[in-house]
C-alpha cells in the first residue's frame, strides 16, 4: 500500500498541545504577563478576604444548626482586609452577623432566630 499522507498518533498531538501550553505559560511568567492574569483572578482590591468570610459563615451556620445560641453570640473571627496588591493592611475581629460573614441571613440562622438582636 502506498501511503502519501503523514500519520500522527493522537497521543503525539496531545503531547504537542501540552508542550505549547507550557511554553506559553512560561513566556507569560517571564515577561510579566502573569501579573495581569493573577490580578484578574484574585479578590477585588480593598475587599475582605473571601475565603476567611466563607469559612466563618460556614462555622456560624453550623452553630445555628446546632441551636447553640451562646456559641453563636460569642464566636468571632479575625478577617484580613486586603489592599490593591493583595497584601493584608488590617485585621479586624468580626461576629457572625457582621460583614463579610452575614450568617444571620442564612436559612439555618433565620429559622433558629439567631441574629445580633438575639445576642
Short description:
The chain has five helices and two strands, in the order H-H-H-H-E-E-H.
List the helices and strands and how they pair.
Blueprint: H1 10-31, H2 33-41, H3 50-65, H4 69-74, E1 76-82, E2 88-95, H5 107-112
Antiparallel strand pairs: 1-2
Relevant terms:
119 residues; alpha+beta; 2 domains; two-stranded antiparallel ribbon; 5 helices; 2 strands; 50% helix; 13% strand; elongated
Could you describe the 3D structure shown?
- The protein has 119 residues and is of the alpha+beta class.
- It folds into two domains: 10-41, no CATH class; 50-112, no CATH class.
- The chain has helices spanning 10-31, 33-41, 50-65, 69-74, 107-112; strands at 76-82, 88-95.
- Strands 1-2 form a two-stranded antiparallel sheet.
- A hairpin with a 5-residue loop joins strand 1 and strand 2.
- The model has no long low-confidence stretch (mean pLDDT 84).
Largest sheet features: 2 strands, antiparallel
Strands of the widest sheet, in order across it, are 1-2
Strand segment count: 2
Secondary-structure-derived class:
alpha+beta
Based on CA atoms alone, the radius of gyration comes out at 25 Å
Elements, N to C (H/E)? HHHHEEH
The low-pLDDT segments are none
**CA-CA gap between termini:** 85 Å
> What does the overall shape look like?
elongated
What count of domains describes the coordinates?
2
Mean pLDDT across the residues is 84
Amino acid at each position: 500500500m502506498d501511503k502519501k499522507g503523514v500519520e500522527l498518533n493522537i497521543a503525539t498531538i496531545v503531547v504537542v498541545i501540552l508542550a505549547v501550553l507550557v511554553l506559553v505559560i512560561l513566556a507569560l511568567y517571564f515577561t510579566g504577563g502573569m501579573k495581569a492574569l493573577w490580578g484578574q483572578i484574585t479578590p477585588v482590591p480593598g475587599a475582605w478576604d473571601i475565603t476567611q468570610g466563607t469559612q466563618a459563615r460556614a462555622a456560624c451556620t453550623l452553630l445555628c444548626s446546632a441551636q447553640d445560641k451562646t456559641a453563636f453570640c460569642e464566636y468571632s473571627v479575625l478577617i484580613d482586609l486586603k489592599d490593591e496588591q493583595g497584601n493584608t493592611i488590617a485585621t479586624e475581629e468580626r461576629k457572625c452577623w457582621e460583614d463579610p460573614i452575614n450568617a444571620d441571613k442564612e436559612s439555618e440562622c433565620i429559622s433558629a432566630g439567631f441574629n445580633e438582636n438575639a445576642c
